[in-house]
Amino acid sequence: MNFPLYIAKRYLFSKKSHNAINIISIVAVCGVAVATMATVCSMSVLNGFRGLATEMFSAFDPELKITPVKGKVFDPNTIMFQEISSLPEIDLIVESLEDNVMINYRGRQGLAILKGVSDNFVSLTNFKSTLVDGDTILKNDINNFALLGSGRAGSIGGVNTGFVFPMEIDAPKRNVKVNLSNPITSVNREYAYIGGIFSVNQVVYDDNYIIVPIELARDLFDYQKEVSALEIKLKDGASVKEVQAKIQKISGGDFYVKDRYQQQEDTFKMINIEKWVTFLILSFILLIAAFNVIGSLSMLIIDKQADVITLRNLGADNHLISRIFLFEGWLISASGAVAGIGLGVLLCLGQQHFGWLRLGTGDNFSITAYPVIVSSSDLLFVLITVLTIGFFSVLYPVRYLAKKWLR
Prior knowledge:
The protein is α+β, with helices and mostly antiparallel strands and 407 residues long.
């Protein structure tokens, strides 16, 4: 066994009298452990919110989405898109066409985003689970139906499914000058009955989106076969990144191919920033906790002067003696890091199973307890950070104190 490490372990872990120096060492280990535990718990909670956001968006956003780099629409009936649709990893492709509209329901008006989709839209995601009323049927032999976000439905008078009055949907005609004397002639109008109300628990969708058949959207926006996006569902086991790369290679630089994280880039970027800012703040707390290690080492070096003399008489030089106290400081940091990570993981697992910390109750919360996801990569990163801080926090002090006391 490494001799300096053996002596350092004896100083830290062997049975000895509980004097002030031992208490300071215990306090140093506890300080590092508490700061490490707080870091693990904070990062795991933010991972949980990221997972929650992913789950919420996955009910509306496709696994992959193709949109044009320039312009609003494109023709999906080309050889290039036929090649994409023939990829073996693709299970389903949905055509969608969306733009801004004005809606009017019995005198109540509002702006909305109209999304026209092909008949297989419901099979694209777990959208059916978001319905709070009605059904996902978008048309029958006679009528078109619209699916409204819960916030959008509430803003035009709290409409519900089964109402006998259709909703008016207006959009300006393309490539037509506005007739100031009779503006209504410059507007296309379509009608749709309210077939369902959905809630994704995301304001951007619940308060803005209306889903209708793509044929109604094309008539309203004056398009023939154009789409604003192709939304793709992959077969089970297919790699999103690999298929994304294949489609991007086929489509070239004229189209964006985005996964769910890229479709909601701003949201996930904000969560990631919060996570690493929190980590940075807690790293400063870890640095402060490291000063306890410095104080403990200082007292230990002073207390072990007799041991130092004995070691010198046995032939130990200053370098070997300094390494003993360096290992002592690193063992304090490592012990605190391991204990903190262990406690943090236990707390996170307890939160996952028992939901000790509550967000609240009522309809304002989609979940009642703080979500927690423990990531092994985060645990490794925290461990490396704590050990690095511990290494540099004791390196200079031990060298300085060794010059002063280890003579």
